[in-house]
C-alpha cells in the first residue's frame, strides 16, 4: 500500500477522534451556556416583576406565584409605594442551583433610598429555572422566612422642650390636633360647615377644595392645629364631617397661645420656602420651628434620624438610616413667673404696642421679654427706638466719671438755643435755681444740654458702652437682638440731642434694661437668654463713686421727680429714670414713653410705642412697671 494511503488513513483516524472530542466539549459548553442563560433569565424576570410589584409574573420552585406575591406584599408593605429599582448582578451557579445577587434600591416616603444586595436562590424544575423558596426571606438577607420590614418614622421621636429657670417648662410637649381636608372625599357642604367651626373666612376653604379637586390633587389640605382644650370644645362639630381629617400628635406648647410670643416662636408644617432653602433638611409633611427660638434652634430641638428600616422581628437591628432620636431640650434663663407678670402688666397699654424686659441684677440673665401685641415683631429685643431721657442715666455716668459734681447748680430754662437750633423741654417746664440732682429727677433736657456741652465727642459713647449699650453681646445672649447705638457726637446740636437720648441714639428695651442692670450691679455683664452659648460674661467693674451718686439720683426720680407713680410699689425701694422720646411720623408729632430702673434683684425697661401728646414716661410707662412689680411681688 502506498505510504501516502497509509498516511491518509492514519490522518483520517486522527481527524475522527479529534472531531468526537471537540463535539463533546462544544456540547458541554452549550449546556453550560444554556444553564447560565436560564438562571440569569429567571433572575431577570424576578427583578422586573419586583420593580413592577407583580411578583406573580416570575417563575418559582417550591411555591406558587400567588403565594410568593402575597409574601412580598406582607414583607414589604411598610416600605411604601415609592419607586423600586432591581438590577441583576453576579450569578454563581453550581449544576442545577444558583445564587443571583440582586442590587435593590427602594425609595422611601422621605425621599431617601434604601439600598441593599439581596442573594436570591435559583433552581431548576425540569428544564426550567425559577426562584427557589427556602427557609429564609427572598426580600432581604437579614429577614427570616416570614418576617417583614418595619419602618420607624421621625414621628416616633419627640421634639425637645424649651425650659426656663430651674428647669421650668416654658414650652412642653402636649397633644395637638391637626385638622385637614381630604379633597377626594370632602364635599362643599362639609367644608362650608368646617369654615364655621374654625372661624375661617366664608368661601376660603371651599375655594381651596375646589382648586384641589380641579387639579386632581390628592394631598390633604391643612386647615388649623388646635391644642387639646381648643379641640375639645369643637370636637362634636368636627367629627363626622365628610372628608375632614383629624390627626393627633405631640408638639411643644407654651402655657397659653400668647405666652412668650414672639420670642419663643411656633412649630408648624414646613413651608415651600424652607424646603427650597434647606432641601437636605426639610421635606413636605414635616413639622419644624417656623419662628422665634423654635426656628433659630430647630436643629437642636428637632428629632434626628429620619426614617429607619429594621426587621419586624428585631427592631433594634437597623438596616437603613438611623433610629429616630428625641430632640434636645433648650435651656433658657426665662422665669415663667416674671414673664407672666410682664405680659399681664402690658395689658394696661391696650392696643398700643409695648414691651417690657426684666433682667436678673446679680447674673445679667434675661428673666422676661414681653411684647404687646404678642404677634409680629419682637419689640423687646429687636426694636430700634430713640431711648429718650432714659439715656440720661448714661449721660450722667459720663459726667460723673469726668469729675462733675451733681450738686452743681445747672439752670433749667424751658428752651435753649444751640448753634442756631432751639431745643426745649418736653412740656416747656422750668425749675427754679435747681441743682443737677433736681434736673435729673425732673428730667430737664435743657440742663443736660448745658452740662454735657464740655464733654468730648466720644465721652457719651464710651459711657453708654461701659454700661452695655452698643456692645456686641449677641453670642452670650444666644438670640438676635439690637444692642443699641450711641455714636460719637459730630457737633454741638448732635451732642445736645444725644445728651437726652434723641438725635442719632437708638436702643432696644433690652439694651436699656441692660444699662439699668449694670448701674444696679456696679458692673457690666453681657446678658444671656439661651444658656450655654459661650462668650465672656466676666463682670466689668464700673466707677464706684459715680454709681453711688447715680443711685442717689435715680432714687430721687421716684421720691421727688418724674417717677413718683412708683412710690409704694410692693417689694421695696424702686430706682428709676423716666423717658419721653419725641419724633415725627407722617408729619405729625408722636411721643414714646419709657421707664427703666430696678427694684431689688430685678432690673427692667418698659417702652410704650406711641402715647398721646402731653403723656410721658412717668404717666404711661411707670404705671405698667408698677403693675408688673405688684404682680411679681404679691402674686
UniProtKB/TrEMBL annotation:
Boundaries of every Penicillin-binding protein dimerisation domain copy: 155-308
Keyword check for Membrane: yes
Predominant localisation class: membrane
Region entry Disordered, spans: 303-330
Domain Penicillin-binding protein transpeptidase: 356-628
Source taxon at top rank: Bacteria
Intracellular or extracellular location(s): Membrane
Keyword Secreted: no
Alphabetized UniProt keyword annotations: Membrane
Pfam families: PBP_dimer, Transpeptidase
Family: Belongs to the transpeptidase family.
UniProt protein name: Penicillin-binding transpeptidase domain-containing protein
Organism, as annotated: Luteipulveratus flavus
